[in-house]
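Regression check, C2E case 550:
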Amino acid sequence: MSPGDIAFEHAVVPMALVAPEGRLLAVNQALCDLLDRPRDQLVESGLQDITITEDAERLVTVRRRRLIRSDGGVVAALITSTLIEATPHSLEHYLLQVEGLSAREVRSGDQEPLDPITGLPNRALFVDELRSALARASRRAMGLAVFVLDLDHFALVNERLGHEVGDRVLAHVATRLQTHLRLSDTVGRLGAGGWLPGDEFAVVCEDLEDERHAVVLAERFDWVIKGPLVVDDHELSLTASIGVAVAMNRETSPEAVLRTAEAAMWRAKQRGGAGYELFDEAAHNRAVSRLATEDALSRAIERDELRVHYQPILRLDRSSVTGVEALLRWERPESGPVAPAEFIPLAEDSSLIVSIGAWVMREAVRQAHEWRQRFPELGLTVSVNLSGRQLGDPDLHELVSDVLRDTEIEPSALSLEITETVLIEDGDRAWAALKPLKDLGVRLEVDDFGIGYSSLSYLRLFPLDGLKLDRSFVADLGSNDKVEAIVSAVIGLAHALALTVVAEGVETPVELGILGQFGCDFAQGYHWSRPLPPPQFEQWLRDYVSDRTP
Ligand code: C2E
Ligand code: MG
Ligand code: MG
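Current build output:
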């Protein structure tokens, strides 16, 4: 044996030398072991004899095949085939190297490229395949479509029938998708890990003539998934939300195409599922600008582009300033100041809000502490907005207690505002997060009260100190009797529950008058001042104090 033969024979990777028509010329021990077949049976047999029929017909470029063991068992395998340089007198040969599921122990340390439940490529491998497909598409100047299919309400299947049945359902869906694909198409399973539930499949279809072709395929997948499915005597009728991204002669990365298809899938899901959504150019542009903004935002803290502006909160019975609300601004160099509505949702999606929110908290409390010392007669409180995402952050409690300790500000001078919808949507988690904050002695207030929910019962469930009446109610005061009745009732209810009421967005003396009549405790709004940067706000405070001193 030559050293090369010895290496081939003893390699831990199952390997075969294959003639162009598929005859196995030589196999190594690892392949015999993997398939549990004697060497003389393998040599001289054809690749098609040991491969599941549909797979054998697949193109050479398809790397995933299912091989058959002697006992009929199937090994889902990833195959790399390398063309061995042909000499003038010999035919070209292929060296096949197999990475099978069963070979996993041998190659420990490697990421398993195939999903164990469905035998499909996992996300990483699918992205690889998509990359090659995109390269082929651009070479041939043909289009390509990526479909992301997410089963609707799959969690219910798992819940009702158990995970084992759930897994078999996934395997069935995988087979069904595969049987309805062309040979050149690839299907993968994306889910698993993170927030994704794991019932997400992806398909790439090559040689697309035009975008309408993608629609035809989407309709076909929709129909394929909807067919009744019997698993272990359970009859199921599934639907999927399908997102379609089409790459027509456009240079793009596999990750970008996949993200686009996923975004379209979410739109299909939001529309109620059981159908498909095609990604469109406008959505694409939105996605691109979103990405750019997200990227810039992730550097905003270190680049010192974030600012806190302050708006006074007044006590109505004595018409005196009692507090400030900290409102975030982003001074983006290329586009000027950006309002929170434009970037906070983005920061929440990407969890940037946690670090940004921590920055706001430190900065606002530091600043407020300074003003409390400069204007001791006012006894200013400071209100900081918390996003739902921050509430779920396990480090929030430590952040707040650190800030209180470092500034030595009185805990009751700090008020945390939480939007109503957060309390309602994830009540248990909100309660678990709020209780320890409450124990630190800070105040807790519901922000934007009145827009989220029809039931008020939650007000007594949480350890709250006050509520902030949403501006939409205030704006209707003086012109809408029904709203006035609601506002008056809300204030009464809040007082009955020992909650204070802040009216948001007071702009006119009329609004102010009515609120005073109803016994509202506090208010803020343009009537007194817009949110201001610190130096201007300090000037405003100074003017206010000197106006009041006789
Ligand atoms: P919010 O907490 O309800 O803040 C009140 C919003 O109403 C502020 O908008 C304020 O500028 C505006 N406003 C105050 N008075 C008036 C008025 O008389 N008329 C009108 N039309 N508007 C008035 P802003 O500053 O654009 O903030 C919008 C929202 O962004 C805030 O609503 C809050 O939910 C969020 N936000 C602001 N800063 C932060 C922050 O640091 N963290 C988090 N998580 N959210 C923040
Ligand atoms: Mg607020
Ligand atoms: Mg509000």
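Comparison notes: The first helix runs from residue 3 to 10. The two ends are 108 Å apart (CA to CA). No diff flagged against the previous build.
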